[in-house]
Structures are given as C-alpha cells and as structure tokens.
Amino acid sequence: MTDIIVATHGGLAEGMVDALELIIGKQENIWFLGLRHEDSIDTFIKRVDSFAADTDHDILFMTDLL
C-alpha cells in the first residue's frame, strides 16, 4: 500500500483531501499538511518527517507549487 501526503501552503491541502473524500469516501492512507503563517520551515519539515516516520509503506508526496 502507498500512503499519500498532500502538503501545501495554507489550508489548500486540507480542502483538497476534504473534497476528494466527499467524492470517494474516507481514506485511511491520505494525509494533509499545510504550511501556516506562524510555522517556520523547520517546524513544517519536522511535521513532514513525523508523518513519514509513522509508516512502513511507500509514500507519495503531492505538493502545490505556489
């Protein structure tokens, strides 16, 4: 199984995952992370690393290019 992490600026990732789950139902292998205004890059990287460390599956990262 492959886990999917959607990582974007602001709340875009959460909105994308929410819209997807409205169409196909709740998914247990899709996660979202948003870089918030109050986050430092180091904090965001630590959150990404934490998600990645919690799985033994392959990970597909999907990001925005804003």
TrEMBL record:
InterPro entries: Bacterial_PTS_sugar_comp, PTS_EIIA_man-typ, PTS_EIIA_man-typ_sf. GO terms for molecular function: transferase activity. The keyword Transferase applies. Keywords: Transferase. One of its GO terms (cellular component) is membrane. Residues 1-66 form the PTS EIIA type-4 domain. The keyword Transferase applies. One of its GO terms (biological process) is phosphoenolpyruvate-dependent sugar phosphotransferase system. PANTHER family: PTS PERMEASE-RELATED-RELATED (PTHR33799), PTS SYSTEM MANNOSE-SPECIFIC EIIAB COMPONENT-RELATED (PTHR33799:SF1). This is PTS EIIA type-4 domain-containing protein.
